[in-house]
Model the fold of this input.
Amino acid sequence: MSTHKTSAEFDRASLVQADLAHFVHPQTDLAAHADTGPLVIARGDGVFVEDIDGNRYLEGMAGLWCTGLGFSEPRLVEAARRQLEILPYYQSFAGRGHEAGIRLADELAAIAPAGLRHVFFASSGSEANDSAIKFAWYYWAAQGAPQRTTILARRRAYHGVTIGSASLTGLPMMHGGFNVPRPFARHLTAPHFVAEGREGESEEAFSARLAGELEETIESLGAASIAAFIAEPVIGAGGVILPPKGYFAAIQPILKRHGILFIVDEVITGLGRLGTMWGSESHDLAPDMLTCAKMLTSAYQPLSAVMLSSDVHTAIVSESGRRKGFGHGFTYSAHPVAAAVAREVLAIYRERDIIGHVGRVAPGFQRLLQQAGQHPGVREARGQGLIGGLEMREPANAARLQSAAQAEGLFVRAVGGDVLAICPPLIITEAEITELFERLGRAMAFLG
Ligand SMILES: Cc1ncc(COP(=O)(O)O)c(C=O)c1O
Done:
């Protein structure tokens, strides 16, 4: 644990006062926060974090599904420091660039799912998905079909909170009061067998029904109005929902047949979460665009990427040529410090075989998850790789269990209204996985 500042050295009262007076917390019940006040985290160590009162927590969510390499990887600190010294910032507008960004694009293209050879950088998952939406529209403009603007998404999906990505997100809490979704977004049934499957329906038949819904939607809207379909390989924030058997195998040929672009949102699943480098690998997906963020830098720096197929890239280049410019990009696109950290992440993955490690510890994680799921208060335990969810019979128990776990020194998170999500750093050891589920087991005592 870093010794920079001891708990006694934090002025707790003034931190709380300043927080309540000035800090607007994202994704927080802001009215309730005025009463509860902040939980202030002081430092991190491997898979643990410690608050300013000295309480230590096993970070069973890797922050927000993102610190793949834990909270104290010195190589990432050093990579950032080195880049800050050499070139702390440079832009990539108007053909300029820098070594960190260019090398990272090359390295990502080398490990991307087949055919995705071109990389656009942004800073967050939301920006990456917004960029993918705009690239889909630009692509269709290049094809002489600018009226293809509808983007199909699913209920319970989470794609972010900017106006574009929030429109694709399928969670009412992200819409209410915010004038989203915008009309270009169209939501299909959540691929959630336990919640949406009908009496007597098999998982395969459920998938076939959802594929039928997709066909009908395309028919009723007209393929000539649809730009793209977006999906997470495994839904995260909507409730850790694995695709039902045969779902993507049924969906993908329909998209292909109608020329609808397939955007795969790997903001959570990318970089090893499911035990493969990409969720697209483990779910046999052939994206036209893939977005990733979070574990790309282990969240030590904000960075996201959109990877493009040659087909999409060629269209974008030609449209840009016609318009004598490409009117999209961010000040921080390919930020050199973030890019340097991402390159170091990829180097660590290679040298320490992080994907192999996930493959070795994930079966134990999933076994203990299933054991926790035996509790009568749990409707279903489900997961893949190092992500898991416990769907509670009584939805409110997800939030209660989150609080009870925190009291046991474990951060896990209630998501999707009724699911407790677990998504630890990828570097978690077998012993730490055991400890995680021991703490969770103690927290579950209140369920009876
Ligand atoms: C699948 C998915 N897509 C997009 C996002 C949005 O990312 P950000 O919060 O970096 O904008 C998230 C965030 O959790 C996510 O889980």
Remarks:
- The two ends are 36 Å apart (CA to CA).
